[in-house]
Amino acid sequence: MKSLRTKAQGWVYFLYDHYFQEDANNDLTDFIQYFKIEGFANEPEVYIKTTNEGLEFGYIATRWDGYMVLLPPGQYKKHLLPWSSIKLMNKENQQERILELLMKTINTRKRQYRKCQFCGEKLATEHRIDDNICHSCASKYLGVVF
């Protein structure tokens, strides 16, 4: 089974070869691609998207408005690689920098997950009432009403 870094590297190389190379015919306006963290918890997604400033790296997470879930899930920006920096690097350095920021984003998202002390499920911070108790178990065992 491939490591997460190897999968992410293959994905970055694919994106680079198909979308990020300087080409007058490539329109990167509103470009966004999602990478699923397979085999981890509920398989959260991180993203790379283009902005006027550069390549943005972030993750997708549920948004709450009080007790209601808002749709669609929110995009939470973690890193930005400015176009000015990208243009100063050769292809290999660009790919390595993109991979580095992608892995930092993945690791940031993974660190937000904790196991519930009751059910043992690994959940993101937005699905827990504190570090150790998920919403479902808070209702079931503690009487919390959402």
UniProtKB/TrEMBL annotation:
Q: Would you tell me the protein name for this molecule?
A: Uncharacterized protein
